[in-house]
Amino acid sequence: MRDASPDARLDAALLAAHEAGDGARLIGLYAQAAERADAPARPFFLTQAWVHALEAGDTRAEALAAKLRAMGRL
Fold this sequence. Notes:
Blueprint: H1 6-20, H2 23-36, H3 42-56, H4 61-70
Helix pairs in contact: 1-2, 2-3, 3-4
């Protein structure tokens, strides 16, 4: 059996983190997805990371917001 592609592994990790309710992991995974995404999808993934960071009171929220501001999304 072949290894799953990096994108398939990331998708599986995101689903597992959602199922586990692991907000801290979701922040990192969505940020990672944003880095890999094409330009149209990048704001979506960054927004998801930012929302999870806000909900968790995570210190990464401001850096994620800054990236969204730089894209004209906040």
